[in-house]
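Fold this complex.
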Amino acid sequence: EAQVTQNPRYLITVTGKKLTVTCSQNMNHEYMSWYRQDPGLGLRQIYYSMNVEVTDKGDVPEGYKVSRKEKRNFPLILESPSPNQTSLYFCASRPPLEAGPSFTGELFFGEGSRLTVL
Amino acid sequence: AQKITQTQPGMFVQEKEAVTLDCTYDTSDQSYGLFWYKQPSSGEMIFLIYQGSYDEQNATEGRYSLNFQKARKSANLVISASQLGDSAMYFCAMREYAGTYKYIFGTGTRLKVLA
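Structure:
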């Protein structure tokens, strides 16, 4: 089954304790991205990656790191989490542009990871 | 700067009636894509419909249609014959081109379908 898998789905942690949210996709997608969802703010893009070893900042990258060492994985790293990073996080991937005239750029989302930083 | 605006934080609709969720966008790009996603209470994001900026016809997918008015920069979602299962949060989103492939989402509209 084609899917984007995030782990953990739920996490409660404390300020300053480094954590990593993993994201893996089995669709051979080159493009992957991370979003955070907050009430009243919608989804905001944190980082995205066009391919292996190619990453770029989204709109809210502060406090986050990413890496893309393999095509299928795109982990989100919080080196020193703070309470303002309490949020619902989504990983998403997208088929390549070469997919043909039917290409839309539709994002395939993981199920989300709800993070609470105390 | 590119922006998506959804002005309706919440809406109610009677079951079996049609409802329109508003979305306006702002971009200087000529080529872009517009999307609607549904987020039920379980939290997952479900793709509903897509409209390309060069598409001359409004997109339709089953009970969903996208009322695309390019000159007005609006991309409203129309849900016909509402069902109780349509109760959810709905997000409008835009994909930029310009070589960066960033996606911008609106703040969402929470729809409640009444029996």
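The longest strand of chain B covers residues 88-95.
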